[in-house]
Amino acid sequence: MTVAALDTELEQVRQILLGDEYRDLLRFRSALEDDQQFVRRVAAVIAESLQARAAIDDSVAAVLMPTIERAISESIEQDPRKLAVSLYPVMGPAIRKSISETLQQMLDSVNQLLEASLSLRTLRWRLDAWRTGRSYAEIVLHNTLEYRVEQVFLIHRETSLLLQHQVAAGVEVRDGDMVSGMLSAIQDFIEDSFSTHEGDNLDTLRLGDLTVVLQRGPYALLAAVVRGRVPEQLRHQQTVILEKIHRFKHNQLRDFRGDTDEFAELGEDLRHLLTLKRKSDRKSGTGKIPWLAVVAVITLLAAVGYWQYTNYQVRQTDRQLLAALEREPGLVLLHANASRDELQVSLLADPLARAPADVVGAQGGERVVRFELQGFVSTEPEIVRQRAYRMFVPDERVSIEISNGTLRLDGRATSDWLAVVSRRWPDLAGVDALDTDALEVYNPRLEQLEQLTAEVEALHFSFATGAADIDPDGREVSTLVTAIRRLNDLHYQEFQRPVQLDLVGYTDGTGPRAINSRIGLTRAEALRKVLLAHGVGNVVLRVYNSFEYEEDGSSERKARVVVRFD
Predict the structure, then answer these.
(1) Does the domain formed by 381-442 have CATH 3.30.1340.30?
(2) CATH class label, 445-564
(3) Nearest 10 degrees: CA dihedral of 128, 130, 132, 137?
(4) pTM, rounded to two decimals
(5) Distance CA 554, CA 111 (A)
(6) What is the distance between the alpha carbons of residues 352 and 247, in angstroms, rounded to a whole number?
(7) Nearest CA-CA partner of 452 in 431, 420, 433, 479
(8) Burial of 496 (0-12, 13-18, 19+ CB in 10 A)
(9) What is the pLDDT of residues 56-71, one digit of tens each?
């Protein structure tokens, strides 16, 4: 018989002997071996299982805490915004409340400081401090404090060991363990020394303005040290906190073996008892006005207002100065650094621009302005115009304007000056073109030639009837020679050739024409000889009588010079 056949027969025997129970066992086995079915069955009871285990001890929290902490840590590392969004409904109000309370405490502290510093009673308190030898702070606290819970002790009743100790800010601290031991010793001393009923306990100790309020629980004692009047709600608060401690730390208190680290988390609850209340200055519904404080506040506000006003004035002055510098041609404002003492300005400055100090001028008043200048070449029209005047030095009859990069000339100028401008204007930064349409150009040498010509032709020499003699030393000869020399020099400079002069002799017209023609020619020749004798230079001299020069002759007995430029 094979193994498979044997297994089959054994299976039939099991079914015959066990019946329905065997089939149930097979079904349970299949369910246990199927992971999906097992997970679904466990999921149906896992919440109830955790709840039941948590009711027995803290093992569920101890096991889940590391896992939850790791999950939260990994979530924050991957995407902190998810946790922030989830906590926002809780953290937002808590943060706002904390900030509001902090601001309110700060305002209360400032108000109390003003009231305690600027009143007549502070003088009395300082006198009391000096007279009694106590500190001023102690006198102020004594006179303004209604009550303050300064210290809170949590003591284990069985061992008298200090579990937690919280102290208000600014309170001198003694050894907490020693205090807890002394409280327990006092309680034992009273129970041993006096006849007391069962369950009676010491609940209050008083020394001067200090009161120790004791509240007992099954395993712990809560003691609060109060300076001043004991508030009515203190005992109720102690009871609530003590009950909470016994509820959450019942096992630790019951099984306490000296390890106080287990109670470190209770410090926050105990700090809620550290309260403070000051005496109110209001009596019979009428508020006492702290005039010194009011005056001080008004003075402070006036000082702040004056400081703000002066700052505003300084800023306005700085804005005006900077605007003036920005408007000035040839200056480019880089940056400015203003303080209450001075204004520091960094500028690009063209050499032709006005000095920044002159631009600021009287606008600055007493404002100290320091300049840091860097040179550059400005292409602003006004600066380019000044540069053009310096470069070309035009005649007073010439005006220069800069428009859209074009150098425009107007007025009346010499051709030589215009030639210089035409050659040099491309070197002028900011100029792209030259416009001379409105400029009248003239040649000064031609004008001088015309003037000298008029002077020469205006001179003439008179003769007696029939005479042709000229005084070579006469004033007219000297004047004519000088004018001819100047005329010839100027003519040569302009045309590079000597001037041509026509010497014409005239007669009075009486007598025969032939005789008059000969006399007129003789007179012109006489003038020619005199001029040559005085050395008029390489002038071209030609002689004519009036009949040759003018068809109708003349009725005057004279000789004159006619200038020709052809």
Answers:
(1) yes
(2) alpha beta
(3) 70
(4) 0.39
(5) 124
(6) 91
(7) 479
(8) exposed
(9) 877 777 777 888 878 7
